[in-house]
């Protein structure tokens, strides 16, 4: 069965995922797309045979749409995900699932009322070969009990529309998910510290930001978010355990020697750095949707748990203090 996909939001990543479904992976085709900028939607589906519809409601309701991909900006995600659940259609939602814990809770409630799992969240790092190897080492006890982790998340630059709260909601949300997954634990408290801001930022933005997380089991995580670092896109992660450490591998690249220097290229954005992870993520999602079974990637609970933490991080950004996340117990539905 070829899974017929409808896409809501055809900006940078929406267009990437349309290209990915059309040319990189098998088993699916894009049949409909929408964007609040209709011209952008038309450009994104050019040459695919897909049609442009007026809005997300039309995409989700379309008879020939089997499954929905939500790649609009974060605050618009919850509405589309809730509409897909109401229609009983599987939905892949780019991170974040929602930008408030209340919206994420509405999604959990709706999915449980529906009675089976329909939602997958785009935490693609769980499909990255390096992170998968780290997970195997930590889970098999290869470094003993994890005590600490050190993370770095750097982007070369961000547009003026990126605001200070997005450091948590849009950027750190990846590490928040990865840490819950790698350490198999929930995050109980967070503190955001703002060092001297870089001059290379739009005036309204607090950048960089340090984030400190406390896991329920007592392990501690530090994260540098620096989205105007200029030189490239760099993701770092090291977990320190009682018996050893495990670190995310460097991205392989040719070594160039010239003019008295030895250098290797640094990726410039997430499209290249995580290309293989995005492909693996979509291959698995399409395969599972075609099989008619609930998808096994990050689910609505993972999206909710991450949003509870980003909410707390936003409160800490404003207060400077340590903020408890108050995460509740995972419902059996998501066990
Ligand atoms: P973008 O601004 O390039 O694209 C967003 C698009 O959504 C725009 O074209 C906008 O017009 C459209 N849009 C907004 N609201 C809409 C609505 N209600 N209905 C239809 N279209 C709507 O942003 P982007 O970089 O493509 O990011 C989109 C999402 O993907 C974000 O949630 C972002 O966090 C996520 N993302 C994830 C990764 C990752 O590494 N997993 C990377 C980039 C972006
Ligand atoms: P973008 O701004 O390029 O694209 C967003 C698009 O959504 C725009 O075209 C906008 O017009 C459209 N849009 C917004 N609201 C809409 C609505 N209600 N209905 C229809 N279209 C709507 O943003 P980008 O970079 O593509 O990010 C989109 C999402 O993807 C974000 O949630 C972002 O966090 C996520 N993302 C995930 C990445 C990852 O690493 N997994 C990488 C980049 C983005
Ligand atoms: C973007 O939305 C992503 O998800 C990228 O992976 C991340 O590095 C960036 O900071 C976000 O804005």
Largest sheet: 7 strands, mixed
Strand neighbour order, sheet with most strands: 12-11-7-10-9-8-15
Class derived from helix and strand content: alpha/beta
Distance between the termini: 29 Å
CATH superfamily of the largest domain: Dihydrodipicolinate Reductase, domain 2
Morphology call: globular
Estimated helix fraction: 25-40%
The CATH topology of the largest domain: Dihydrodipicolinate Reductase, domain 2
User: Number of DSSP helices?
Assistant: 10
Mean pLDDT: 97
**Percent of sequence in beta strands:** 15-25%
The CATH architecture classification of the largest domain is 2-Layer Sandwich
Low-confidence stretches: none
Radius of gyration: 20 Å
Function: Involved in the oxidation of myo-inositol (MI) to 2-keto-myo-inositol (2KMI or 2-inosose).
Catalytic activity: myo-inositol + NAD(+) = scyllo-inosose + NADH + H(+)
Domain Gfo/Idh/MocA-like oxidoreductase N-terminal: 3-123
Subunit structure: Homotetramer.
In brief:
By secondary structure, this protein is an alpha/beta fold.
Core attributes:
single chain; 335 residues; alpha/beta; Rossmann fold; Dihydrodipicolinate Reductase, domain 2; 7-stranded mixed sheet; 6-stranded parallel sheet; 10 helices; 15 strands; 36% helix; 22% strand; binds nicotinamide-adenine-dinucleotide; binds 1,4-dihydronicotinamide adenine dinucleotide; binds (2R,3S,4s,5R,6S)-2,3,4,5,6-pentahydroxycyclohexanone; Gfo/Idh/MocA-like_OxRdtase_N
């Amino acid at each position: 069965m070829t899974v017929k996909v409808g896409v809501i939001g055809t900006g940078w990543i929406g267009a990437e995922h349309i290209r990915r479904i059309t040319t990189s992976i098998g088993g699916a085709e894009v049949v409909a797309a929408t964007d609040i900028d209709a011209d952008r939607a038309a450009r994104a589906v050019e040459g695919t045979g897909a049609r442009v519809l007026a809005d997300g409601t039309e995409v989700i309701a379309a008879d020939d749409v089997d499954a929905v991909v939500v790649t609009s900006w974060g605050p618009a995600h919850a509405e589309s995900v809730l509409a897909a659940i109401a229609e009983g259609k599987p939905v892949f939602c780019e991170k974040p699932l929602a930008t408030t814990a209340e919206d994420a809770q509405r999604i959990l409630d709706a999915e449980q009322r529906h009675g089976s799992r329909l939602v997958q969240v785009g935490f693609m790092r769980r499909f990255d070969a390096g992170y998968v190897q780290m997970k195997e080492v930590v889970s098999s006890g290869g470094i003993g009990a994890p005590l600490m982790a050190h993370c770095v998340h750097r982007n070369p630059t961000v547009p003026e529309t990126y605001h200070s709260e997005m450091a948590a909601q849009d950027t750190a949300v990846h590490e928040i998910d990865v840490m819950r997954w790698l350490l198999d634990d929930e995050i109980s408290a967070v503190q955001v510290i703002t060092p001297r801001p870089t001059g290379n930022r739009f005036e309204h933005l607090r950048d960089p930001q340090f984030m400190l997380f406390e896991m329920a089991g007592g392990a501690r995580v530090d994260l540098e978010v620096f989205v105007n670092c200029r030189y490239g896109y760099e993701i770092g992660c090291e977990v320190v355990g009682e018996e050893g450490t495990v670190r995310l591998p460097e991205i392989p690249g040719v070594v160039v020697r010239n003019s008295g220097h030895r250098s290797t290229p640094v990726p410039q954005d997430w499209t290249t750095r995580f290309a293989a992870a995005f492909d693996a993520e979509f291959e698995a999602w399409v395969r599972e949707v075609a099989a008619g079974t609930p998808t096994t990637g990050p689910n609505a609970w993972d999206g909710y748990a991450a949003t509870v933490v980003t909410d707390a991080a936003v409160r800490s950004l404003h207060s400077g203090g340590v903020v408890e996340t108050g995460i509740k117990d995972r419902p059996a539905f998501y066990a």
